[in-house]
Amino acid sequence: MLGSIYAIVGVALTLSIGVLKFLNFSIPGLFMIGGMTTWVLIRHGAPWPIAALSALAVGAAASLVVERFTWRWMRTAQEFVPLVSSMAFLILFENLAVAFWGSELQSVPQLFGTSDWRIANLVISIPQLVGLLCSVAMIWGLSAFLTRTRLGRGLRTIAEDSNTALLLGVDVNRIVPLVFVISGLFAALAGVLFALNYRQVHPFMGEALGLKGISAMVVGGMGNIWGAIVGGLIIGLAEAFSIRYFGADFVDISVYGLLLLILIVRPTGLFGDARTGARA
Amino acid sequence: MSGYLEGVLVLLAINIVYAYAAFLPIAAGQLNLGIAGFAVIGGYFSAFVSNQLAVSPLLAIPLGGAVAGLVGLAVAVPVLRTRGIYLALATFALGEMVRAGILNLEVVGGAAGYPVTAFIRLPTIALFTLGVVGLVWLLFSTRFGIAITAVHDDERVADLMGLNVRAFQVAAFTMGSAIAGIGGGLYAHHFSYIEAQYFSISLSISIVLYVLFGGTQSVLGPLLGATVFTLLPELLRGSAQWRYVIFAAILIVVMVVRPQGLVTGTQIRRLLGLRSEFDRKEQAT
Amino acid sequence: MTGPDPILIFDAVSKHFGGLAVIEDLSFSVRRGSCTGLIGPNGAGKTTVFNLITGVYPIDTGRILLDGVDIARIPSRRRIHHGVARNFQNIRLMPHLSALENILIGQHCRNSGFLGVLQPVNLIPGNRWREEARAALAEAGLAQIENATVGSLPYGLQKRIELLRALMAQPRLLLLDEPAAGLNPAETDALREDITAICRDRGITLLVVEHDMHFVDALCSEVVVLNFGRKIAEGSPDRVREDALVREAYLGTAAAEQTHA
């Protein structure tokens, strides 16, 4: 299950890299915003579907703010500048959350009772299943959007070459905010799923998870949506295996070792396209 | 000198050392997001040497830097084959791996941290910092500094002009790693205690932010960036998280209005009275 | 095909990008001490020839001999050590360096060892290399801009600095890609006189890509004409101008038929 959350964060990151060549470090922050917003609204008595939808909306809105202050300035700026600004946004989001809600671990109330399905020895929790189905639906929707619609094709043209896209009459300034909205939505969705399933949120929840999302994206190949999903599952499995065989202490060593190894041996990832050799 | 003031100045000196560690590779066009990882190597190694072999910190700290530099060299060769964002990610993975590795290294205390017996105070740390700043400044007044900027500006043309682009990149990365290791050693020996958790990706990111804020085109940039970001939070009384909020907001705004950082090479030349006729004309218009 | 005493020989060189042949079985030579023009319509592969000589791209087949050494087998970084330097069609100076520092980059190939790299050129005012670069700037009348960051300089000045940078390498063969582009007629004339004098005084052989045919006529003793990556003519500018294939390439088939009729 954690693997699928990595995968969704990975999709958000990979979209930004693939289309804009921009490693958006604010995405872990948006993930946290998704999770924290869900918790805040549920605590104030909102039903969970409303809380979840509002969290998605807040995530998308925050992502638009990031767009205004990072990518807008990318063309004129030095190469690392948008990356740095997005890191600053991560710090900003985290500490705003601490300022408003404190830095403690908060728990989301149990919403679904004991709603596990038991089939023989297999225990399937309903929220997990619903979450999984939701994310599969959203990813499938994104993939269909990219291949089937005019806007989606325009987006992929930008990914290939933004100058050509401009020549072909693709409205880059309209599409770029859209990319931010979509990646904000996915990051927030992962946060909502995390909040509802693990029932724990805190202002720095994005860091560890965001780093795993980055690993998922790299393992799968930057810019490749299905690659990010497979990558997320691989990272999840690698974690599970190293806990089982080496103990919990070795999780980070094996995950980041895997990441480093792939970056050295095959930087384009398992399913990467050599052309999306993104710059910072 | 009050304990508070000394504490702030020590932090300032160490942050300046870190900033130069990040500056060297950035000046050559590479982003090292693993500074904390190299600092942790230098910190633990120097602490181990001074604890176990009763070596003076004055020797142990440069030794820690040398080991961090060697590790940097060993990874630079394969890692620098990757470019741009891949390189940044590889250094990030490396930093996290080193940290996780030390957390599991029982000989230096594992997750519990590692106490350091030897103790150094502000004057020693300030001397080390001066040494690092002086060395980097010297380095950048040689042909090396020009070559590094050339590699940063245009790798292709630098190559055609006969510059060994990869050698310069590896050199900048390795020296940066060694300087990070020295910073880690200073930290360990002042606070008498070192703990791998502290050297997280957030530390690496903050250091890179110092440099980009100060300016990547001149040797004074990192000095200025580290100073502003160490002293500013001290001046802003108030809760820690609001300090961070303000820090981040200032950074975002600076990157929007002045993406080249606070100081640039042109300004430095003007300050030194090397203003050219043309600059003057440009200013007049 | 090979004239007397060639400094550069292109021997059956081909280069493909994907399925597209940009240079097809190209052979020509450049006589030592000459000023040779490389002309042809847009997209004929002129700049590609420069890129193949300097090693921006590897060649697919053939040989490129510089004084008998096949430089196509030498890494691009080492070729400047063999005496070939160039400028770029769209100026490629290092924007964050000063004019003087850009010129110091040009000396690198003569001073590239460990001790050369550690020369404190910006620290000791009387440093030999620094003084040499300053003298070159002063000689070109650019002493007043030596500390200006080149990114902020106007186009014409940047072009002159780029030429100085190439000359600093003390090349035997200088490749100039559209040196007169963007200059007004007076500047073009001044540039031509400068280039002629420099090449004569220092014994530099010049290979120049240029669209301005008046410039080529006045500067070059020989020209090589390319079209679609192949050589279609070579010889003196006057002779080449009368060549039917050249007229066709430049003016289109219809015009060529008219002149034949």
How is this fold's topology laid out?
The complex is a heterotrimer of chains A (about 280), B (about 280) and C (about 260).
Chain A: H1 2-20, H2 27-43, H3 48-69, H4 81-101, E1 106-107, E2 116-119, E3 122-125, H5 126-148, H6 150-160, H7 162-167, H8 172-198, E4 200-201, H9 205-220, H10 225-246, H11 251-265
Antiparallel strand pairs in A: 1-4, 2-3
Chain B: H1 3-27, H2 35-52, H3 57-79, H4 84-103, E1 114-115, H5 122-140, H6 143-153, H7 155-160, H8 165-191, E2 193-194, H9 201-214, H10 220-235, H11 240-257, H12 265-271, H13 277-284
Antiparallel strand pairs in B: 1-2
Helix pairs in contact in B: 1-5, 1-8, 1-9, 1-10, 2-3, 2-4, 2-8, 3-8, 5-8, 6-8, 9-10
Chain C: E1 6-17, E2 20-31, E3 35-39, H1 46-54, E4 61-66, E5 69-70, H2 76-79, E6 84-86, H3 99-107, H4 114-117, H5 128-139, H6 155-168, E7 173-177, H7 185-202, E8 205-209, H8 213-219, E9 222-227, E10 230-235, H9 237-241, H10 244-251, H11 253-260
Parallel strand pairs in C: 3-8, 3-9, 6-7, 7-8
Antiparallel strand pairs in C: 1-2, 1-4, 4-5, 9-10
Helix pairs in contact in C: 3-5, 3-6, 10-11
